[in-house]
């Protein structure tokens, strides 16, 4: 069992400066809370490759690994489970229009609107920090 869980996520920023957030499936960890799209890094993957894969799976858009810039880091301790370390990247260009391929609710939000959502704990912290 790994001693920590690496997760990547992306702040997709549109022409109006809004970020794309989606709602986690009800039965998962932090179910129903809002998050940045992304997921666990598989063995043998770089963070950027994992991002490109997750975004294609979840939203059917293509983000080039080289168009993703490392932005922020967050960490969450979990009782009896390895801590999650979340690496947040940022991208302003991609191919395709977002489509919630896993049936998730998603939307574009200003920083102010994002603050009003029920965010996952690390995401709350990240939304505050990207607003600085
Ligand atoms: N993708 C993502 N995960 C987040 C965020 N904030 C946050 O606490 N997490 C946590 C929830 C989970 O414990 C973990 C990522 O798991 P996940 O369920 O999204 O990853 P996955 O799609 O690869 O997982 P799975 O379906 O294979 O179980 O990180 C976030 O903004 N984006």
From TrEMBL:
<keyword id="KW-0460">Magnesium</keyword>
<keyword id="KW-0235">DNA replication</keyword>
<keyword id="KW-0378">Hydrolase</keyword>
<comment type="similarity">
    <text>Belongs to the Nudix hydrolase family.</text>
</comment>
<feature type="domain" description="Nudix hydrolase">
    <location>
        <begin position="3"/>
        <end position="132"/>
    </location>
</feature>
<dbReference type="GO" id="GO:0016787">
    <property type="term" value="F:hydrolase activity"/>
</dbReference>
<protein>
    <recommendedName>
        <fullName>8-oxo-dGTP diphosphatase</fullName>
        <ecNumber>3.6.1.55</ecNumber>
    </recommendedName>
</protein>
<keyword id="KW-0234">DNA repair</keyword>
<keyword id="KW-0227">DNA damage</keyword>
<keyword id="KW-0479">Metal-binding</keyword>
<keyword id="KW-0515">Mutator protein</keyword>
<dbReference type="Pfam" id="PF00293">
    <property type="entry name" value="NUDIX"/>
</dbReference>
<dbReference type="InterPro" id="IPR015797">
    <property type="entry name" value="NUDIX_hydrolase-like_dom_sf"/>
</dbReference>
<dbReference type="InterPro" id="IPR020476">
    <property type="entry name" value="Nudix_hydrolase"/>
</dbReference>
<dbReference type="InterPro" id="IPR047127">
    <property type="entry name" value="MutT-like"/>
</dbReference>
<dbReference type="InterPro" id="IPR000086">
    <property type="entry name" value="NUDIX_hydrolase_dom"/>
</dbReference>
